[in-house]
Amino acid sequence: MMHDDENLSGRLARLRIGRLAIVVIATIGRTFFIASAGAESPTQSTAEPAVKVTWQRVDETEVSIGRVVVSDRAGGMLLESSAGAQTIIEATKVLQAEVAVENFRPLTPDELGEQLLAELPDGFQVYTTPHYVIAYDTSLTYAKWTSSLLERLHRAFTGYWSTKGFELTKPEFPLPVVVYASRDQYRSASKSELGGAAGSVIGYYSLATNRVNMYDLTGAEAGRADRNERASFKTINHMLAQPTAVPLVATIVHEATHQVAFNCGLHSRFADVPLWLIEGMAVYFEAPDLTSSRGWTGVGKVNYPRLEVFRGHLAQWKSEEFQELITGSTRLRNPATALDAYADAWALNYYLIRYRPDGYVSYLEAQRQKSPLATTTADEKRAEFEQHFGALKDLEPDFLRRMSRHE
Predict the structure, then answer these.
(1) What percentage of the chain reaches a pLDDT higher than 90?
(2) Where are the alpha helices (DSSP H) in 288-377?
């Protein structure tokens, strides 16, 4: 059930994944769901209706137009805008809801670009690609480099799952990305979503806005380098292929992987999909090869930094913590345990993809059928897992044996 004192809209959990990076993904804990009893999915049609909702957001009245993704009988809803943003509106906050004059349709890339420019400070420009709309106030070259990296990720991600027999869908919305020129500008703009963590988070994907937000990493690496020093793809690749920069690029790719997964039908936003699956998969894709024009010359290679962390805590391995990883999210959300938990999540995804591929694909298929805002208990999560992979007591020793020896 939903707690009346919880502010659902845009609530974020902040998870540390390493010394240089923090993943940020909108909270999908159980207390943040509209009660699943009576939840209804919208009727799909070629002319999908939009609704106009007047509602109370904190101390001000807001008017939102979009389509209802799911609703409950009391009048609460998950509303999706034409830009792809999703807002949870509790029934007690709704002042009026009526059918909008025009039917719902996603924004075009040009329209999304105009909306982004209207929201962002002066000085931003827009660069578009087949899948992305990049709003930036750094150099055009860096915007193009970022879009090239993301398009290569998109191709690698969709191509990889296609070869595994998993059918993805084309993103319904252009994928928005905001790139700030400096870390200070990014930190200031991100405070409303990240709060005190804005100073240490170098990039994040928001389930609520559907945006990836980041800053120009060459500024972080080059110190006082001017625009001319950052003017070529070759220079950018050289700077960001340095050992100190690799974790920064990996974090951006990690967050962009979330965006692709939630927009290509692999996951459903605000559905109660296990966090080990969401985060472990992003870690699985997070390390590109910047020396290659293809970006990912071998998706699914061993992530050695994660493997090292995983093996480092095997001496203190606890079966109950492994079970909690699968049925809950505490270890992944707690900064004190997140480093080990992210390594475990990567290792589990790697193991299942490599050694239980058919079960993994069928498990993914089952997870993406979940409706947004519906809840799944810990017991149900365990039953779902064991339905596709067998009993945990049998899988765990094989998992530990293989991953402890893997080279």
Answers:
(1) 67
(2) 304-312, 319-327, 330-333, 338-355, 357-368
From CA 3, how far away is CA 8, in angstroms rounded? 9
Any idea of the CA torsion for 335, 277, 382, 34, to the nearest 10 degrees?
Answer: 80
Give the pLDDT confidence of 142-196 residue by residue, as tens digits: 999 999 999 999 999 999 999 888 889 999 999 999 999 999 999 999 988 888 7
Whether the CB-CB separation of 150 and 256 falls below 8 Å is answered with yes
Residue 340 DSSP SS3: helix
Tokens representing 279 are 């985060």
Q: How is 173-209 classified by DSSP, letter by letter?
A: S-EEEEEESSHHHHHHHHHHHHGGGGGT--EEE-TTT
pLDDT < 50 positions in the chain = 1-45, 221-225, 227-230
**Residue 244: exposure state from Cβ atoms within 10 A (0-12, 13-18, ≥19):** exposed
Tokens of 269: 């936003």
For 35-178, where are the alpha helices, taking DSSP H only?
109-119, 140-163
* DSSP reduced 3-state for 69: strand
Residues 221, 242: Cα–Cα separation, whole Å = 9
Which residues contact residue 74 at a Cβ distance below 8 angstroms, ignoring those fewer than 6 apart?
91
Q: Summarize the chain as % helix, strand, coil (round to 5).
A: 45, 15, 40
Q: What is the 8-class DSSP label of residue 40?
A: B
Find the Cα–Cα–Cα–Cα dihedral 71, 72, 74, 80, rounded to 10°.
-20
State how far the Cα of 214 lies from the Cα of 204, in Å rounded to an integer: 7
Residues in the chain: 407
**Phi/psi at 165 (5° precision):** 85, 15
Residues in Cβ contact with 243 at an 8 Å cutoff, skipping those fewer than 6 apart: none
Nearest to 277 by CA among 343, 238, 326, 321: 326
Tokens of 137: 């106030």
DSSP one-letter code for 67: E
Q: Strands 175-180 and 212-215: what pairing?
A: parallel
The span from the CA of 344 to the CA of 334, in Å, is 14
Give whole-number Cα distances, 99 to 48, 65, 73, 331, in Å.
11, 9, 17, 43
Beta bridge mates, 127? 134
